[in-house]
Write a structure and sequence with these properties.
The structure holds two protein chains of two kinds. Chain A is α/β, with parallel strands linked by helices. In chain A, 30% of the residues lie in helices and 29% in strands. Chain A has a single domain, classed as hypothetical protein PF0899 fold, CATH 3.30.2320. Chain B has one domain. Chain B is elongated. Classes of the chains: A alpha/beta, B mainly beta. At the A-B interface, strand 7 and helix 4 of A face strand 2 of B. Strand 7 of chain A pairs parallel with strand 2 of chain B, so a sheet runs across the interface.
Chain lengths: 289, 67
């Protein structure tokens, strides 16, 4: 029976992957590493704190070693999880005749775990909601454009976006040749999409043009209505930020309390940590309205 | 709510109060300090750290005593 439950769990895993790909928002914002293994509980990584100036001369000389100042950061790797139960008759039906599994409970549980992971990547990991043990993209941003921006007014979205890009440009981030995503709350997202001037010209094409091939992205209510941030797309963002994945989403079956009739329980989990290597490549837009 | 003195923790902080315009926007660099309301400091979150709470000066009030 144990083997059957493990097989059942594998079937569930197959059913979880496609819907999760649709709902996972955080992982679409950053480069994701290959799973390193669930046994990895912490990671040491280099955070670039300061770049020394380059040199110009008509030849190379000794003694002027140019280097990047890296501070070693140690992060514990959190797990994101949710338990579920599946009716015993569904399991028995699958075991007996290969009846298609109704994985609704497991999928619902995985959505909840996915939300927690999204929040960890986008906002950060916090006990009290104020102090962040592991800052995410918003809380860990190295620049902040906090000029009050009423997105319902035509032109203000582009003003805020150029303001944010300008701050990153001042820090040496090559904003003119890199695609960026602008990540906002759902309310802000729809305000920007519907913004038009008095003759009906939409503001969205201008916003997308400024993003250099990146996108305007809604993360629902993971951020509040006033919060947003601009960050490099995953295609070019790896030197600045990545998501160190140790375990991709999977299920772990639990032995039923009653051998013949007990519901089949399980746990959906993933594990990983966001690593912001150069925080100046992320800019908050923290006063949207 | 009162005012607080805050220190900038991020590389650059663009702070403005006029909606939809960059006029009156000031860009502060890391470790610069400014005074703002507690409400604004709270909204700025991890971008600033509160270094001092500004207390209003006590104003003397004249009282007449009848003898």
């Amino acid at each position: 029976m144990t083997n059957a439950i493990v097989e059942f769990s594998k079937e569930l895993d197959k059913k979880l992957v496609p819907p999760l790909r649709q709902v996972l928002k955080g992982r679409n914002l950053v480069h994701v590493t290959a799973p390193a293994g669930f046994g990895v509980t912490s990671v040491d990584w280099g955070k670039i704190t300061e770049m020394s100036a380059g040199y110009v001369s008509f030849g190379f000389s000794d003694g002027n070693t140019d280097r990047i100042d890296v501070s070693l950061t140690h992060s514990k790797i959190p797990v994101y999880w949710k338990d579920y139960e599946i009716d015993r008759r569904i399991y028995e039906g699958w075991r007996k005749g290969g009846v298609d599994i109704d994985a609704a409970n497991a999928i619902a549980a995985s959505y909840q775990a996915a939300k927690v992971e999204d929040s960890a990547i986008i906002n950060g990991v916090s006990d009290d909601g104020t102090n962040y043990d592991i800052p995410g993209l918003y809380q860990g941003a190295g620049n902040d454009y906090s000029t009050s921006t009423s997105l319902a007014t035509f032109g203000t979205a582009t003003t805020a976006l150029t303001g944010a890009l300008n701050l990153m440009d001042d820090d040496g981030v090559p904003v003119d040749r890199m695609p960026f995503n602008w990540v906002v709350n759902s309310t802000a997202y729809h305000k920007i999409r519907k913004s038009r001037d008095t003759i009906g010209t939409r503001e969205l094409p201008d916003v997308l043009d400024l993003l250099n091939g990146g996108q305007l992205i809604s993360v629902g209510t993971t951020l509040t209505t006033t919060q947003g941030f601009v960050c490099p797309t995953p295609a070019v963002g790896e030197p600045y930020v990545d998501y160190y994945l140790t375990s991709d989403f999977q299920t772990d079956p639990k032995q039923p309390e009653f051998q013949k009739t007990g519901p089949i329980g399980g746990r959906v989990f993933s594990a990983g940590v966001i690593r912001i290597k150069q925080d100046v490549a992320i800019c908050k837009t923290s006063a949207l309205a | 709510m009162g005012n607080v003195k805050v220190k900038v923790r991020v590389s650059h902080l663009a702070r403005g109060t006029v909606k939809g315009t960059e006029e009156n926007t000031t860009v502060y660099k890391k470790d610069q300090e400014f005074i703002c309301s507690e409400e604004e400091a709270s909204a700025l979150g991890t971008s600033v750290v509160v270094v001092e709470k500004i207390t209003a000066p006590v104003t003397a009030t004249a009282t007449a005593t009848k003898k």
